[in-house]
Amino acid sequence: MMDRRQFAQGTISAALAGCTAAEPPFPGSLGGASSQRGHLLRQAMAPGRPDDVISTDIAIVGAGIAGLSAGWALANAGQRNFRLLELEDSAGGNARSGRTPVSAHPLGAHYLPVPNPESRGVIRLLEQMRLITGWQRGKPLIDDYAIVADPDQRLLFRGRWQEGLLPSLGLNARDAREFAAFFAAMDRWRQHHGSDGRPAFAIPIELASRDPAILALDQMRFVDWVAAQGWSSPVLRAHLRYATRDEYGCEPAEVSAWAGIHYFAGRRGAAANCDGHAVLTWPAGNGHLANRMAQRLRHHLMPGMVVGSVDRAGDRVVITAIDAQRQRRVEVRAQKAIIAAPRFVATRIVPAWQGGDAGFSYAPWVVANVSVSRLPAGPGAALAWDNVSATSDSLGYVVATHQVPRGLPGASVLTWYQPLSAMAPADARALLLRRSLAEWQAMVRDDLLAMNPDLEGAITRIDVWRWGHAMARPTPGFIWGPQRQAAARLDGPILGANSDLSGIPVFEEAHDRGTAAALAALGRDPEEARA
Amino acid sequence: MAEAAPGPDRAGWALLASAFVVATCGLVYELLAGTLASYLLGDSVTQFSTVIGTYLFAMGLGAWASRGVVANELAMFVRVEILIAAIGGPAAALLFLAFDRVADFRLPLYGLVLVIGTLVGLEIPLLMRILKDRLAFADLVSRVLAFDYVGALAASLLFPLVLVPQLGLIRTGFLFGLANVGVALALLAMLPRRGLRAEWLAGWLVALGLLAGLVMAERLERMAEVASHDAPVIHAVSTPYQRIALTRQHDDLRLYLNGNLQFASRDEYRYHEALVHPAMGRSARPARVLVLGGGDGMAVREILKHPVGQITLVDLDPAMTRLFTGSAMLTALNNGSLSDPRVRVINADAFQWLRAATSRYDVVIVDLPDPTNFSLGKLYSLSFYRELARVLAPDGVAVVQSTSPLIARRAYWTVVATLEAAGLATRPYHAYVPSFGEWGFVLAGHRPIAQVAPRLPARLRFWDAATEGQASRFPADMARLPVAINRLDNQALVRVFEEEWGAVAG
């Protein structure tokens, strides 16, 4: 059955299909995770003699946050002999960033919440990066300029912008009652501990309770759990849909209740100098963190490396790759390999893992960076960092220049997000590739102008970025099911590291998996990553 | 065509040409009203949609009313043209001028749209009836409507591409009013006019009035744009950062930034003496002085009364410092302070400049606009004051202008508390400036700032040791109260400031 949204998207694409050849309405570019290097992959997988042979202790495949975190942990441990092989020309993975003459801007992940007290790995990283500048009464002091500046969020609801993402004006009695009940329940879950004494929800999830009563939530759909509580307010449901799409790129009917509740109850951030719910962000989004990590690891980084296979040869590992920039066949021999790539890639390049991606699925996203000659305004609350419309199918836009000490009137970059959650991921990925730059630009423009008619005439450029596999989808049974747990196990000389091994697509999980794999590669206990 | 219809004669062609002209004028008025409404009321989609709807509805009324014209359609058509010119021509100017003088701007706006729309609605039915004896019906309808629609196309292209960018709204209105009255006068000249002397006279009067309006459009524009100020505006300019307006009433020259009063020449010496001398007088050897804001050069004028080494002034807007460096009328006020060889003017955002600054300063004068929005609120934040503390010499003194402790008591003490949270010792004080009211300042330094008689230059008009002795006393209605610290992530000051000043503005 086709729902209203699918129908709408279908008609839009049908209408646009007629004008595929049209000139894009704005200057801009159409980018995405390298598909043009696909043909090199086949070349890399084919047998042949290497042009170069490199020996190293530890090879990390993939320089996204997990791979960079693995490298960071190795460097912390004093290990100097390791390599970081990256497919793209720059490190960062989904946290990569771009730049216009006006501002740096995210291409994907754009913030890191104030860490939970148990997220000790991330806390140590932030201390090393001087983003935690000290401690006061047991709570970290966060760098002032990294804390999202006020106003941080606004919602366009019934024609007027309101502060915050929760509608407060224009709610009827039932909406208000159910919102209160929902958040009271989330507060209880946040404090709840399982029979094993662990918190019901924790970051990283490895620290969460395995109490079967809690894990049972993973077998159930989030929508069913919400319905079972007797909540049916359409405004509450719309907010929950925003939340699951924002966090997981999925409709609430597709994620497990465990994942849905985790989003609301998993955060117990605490800081001495700001609200615990605050986030850390920069004009480049999490590109700021990725770039600084890559800067430290620059002498280990090998960009443009298309890895074709990772094989065991005795107690060693042999990696075959094509150096795309120099067009040379490279063999990397290592004691250990950390595969910091998403599972659907890892299982293709590690023969021993073949078929090991069953149960894993990924959400496609579109991110557009819209250059504007003046800042958006609108009736009601003033422009915020994150601006969301209750009636749009997009997730709204983030203002890249918001964190600059002073956001002056004038040019800026708006990063616009949309998960293609209304259709099956494979169909959405096909659509992602089919649509032209002109079509994407028209959609982004129309959505932005519906939110901010005042931007008419102010858009100067739209750069569109397509993420075919932006994040793992925590469908019912995935997070606490046997397949993910088996994939996450660290043994042998080839070790997996990616946020999809946690099933929760956030920086902290990628960092945790990368750090744990690095410790395992050094022959240490991976649990040290969480201690 | 089966039947060869007779083509239009000379008068017929003139009437068809007038269909083209009146159609162009009609659409221009509609676009003018829609544009004005979206300029002045915002929300262009709603404004355009409702203006167009109202206008079309009014045209329907006019068309319907045309049945009431039973004889002499030509005379009526001429009268309608003169009326449209008289009302539609100056409509844009009138609406601009009325904007802040009426309680609800929508009343005159939609009133005018209704009247003009009704008159425009009368035009085509009357024209068709005038032409009905000169052309076959099919030919009549085809020609009149064709000219009508082509005229509309011309207007819709001319308006955004030529008229608005080249002429502006007020001139465009007058110009198309002239076109309407031109049609009336041309028809009167060409066609037999029996007893239309009154129309002839009225037509010429309206044409002259519109011509005068066209010539004076620039003055009208200036009046309209700055109608919010009480005194005549002598200079107004919009820069990328703000709107600068200078007004003069008798001897009193006033500077407004975005409509907020910055100084009145009558009493600005009180403000600037109170701002500068307590800090300067406490510095043993002010070798390096930093001024953040203060692009009018008045604070620098006061600083130069002390023996100083070098002064760095950081002001955002080059238009502002240029104006106060170049204009003779204004350099007479600041004694040409910005051209003094000891002064270095830097045009940059104070926060971004401060964050990158590495030098240390003996005195820092912070003379920034009030925290009326989130962008300005950052210039009063804990992070900003930490940077300020970093560039302040160990025995240096800073002073911050910090709104009225009487009107915005919590806002004032928020500034004090935030400076203290940045690790600085403070000494709050206040002074009376008639055009501002009771005004607040805060001295800040790494070391406690004692109650001492500062060294004051000779010939000050206001500030003296006795005044300073009183200035740190805050009576009960301005006394300190517990407030939040203003941080980038809570913008506590902007919220409090808006509340307190909003209560005064009503």
* Cα separation of the termini of chain A: 49 Å
Oligomerization state of this entry? Answer: heterodimer
Number of strands of chain B: 11
Which percent range describes the beta-strand content of chain B? 15-25%
- What's the CATH topology label of the largest domain in chain B? Rossmann fold
The first-level CATH class name of the largest domain in chain A: Alpha Beta
The helicity of chain B comes to 40-55%
On the 0 to 100 scale, the average pLDDT of chain B is 87
Segments of chain A where pLDDT lies below 50 for 5+ residues?
Answer: 1-20
The H-level CATH homologous superfamily of the largest domain in chain A, spelled out, is FAD/NAD(P)-binding domain
Largest beta sheet of chain A: what is the strand line-up? 1-20-16-19-18-17-9-10
- For the secondary structure, the number of strands of chain A is 21
- Outline type of chain B: elongated
Helix count from the secondary structure assignment of chain A: 15
Largest interface in this structure: A-B, 25 and 26 residues
Structural description of this entry:
Helices cover 30% and strands 22% of the residues of chain A. Chain A is built from 15 helices and 21 strands. Chain A has an 8-stranded mixed sheet. In chain A, strands 2, 3, 12, 13, 14, 15 and 21 form a 7-stranded mixed sheet that branches. In chain A, strands 4-5 form a two-stranded antiparallel sheet. The termini of chain A are far apart. Chain B has 2 domains: 10-225, Growth Hormone, Chain: A (Up-down Bundle); 265-505, Rossmann fold. Chain B is built from 18 helices and 11 strands. Chain B has helices at residues 10-41, 44-65, 73-88, 91-98, 106-131, 137-190, 197-215, 217-225, 268-280, 298-303, 318-326, 328-334, 350-356, 374-377, 382-391, 409-421, 465-471, 492-505, and strands at residues 233-238, 243-249, 252-257, 260-264, 288-293, 310-315, 343-347, 361-367, 392-401, 425-433, 437-445. In chain B, the strands form 2 sheets. Chain B has a 7-stranded mixed sheet with strand order 7-6-5-8-9-11-10, sandwiched between helices. A 4-stranded antiparallel sheet of chain B has the order 1-2-3-4, with no helix packed on it. In chain B, α3 (73-88) packs parallel to α7 (197-215).
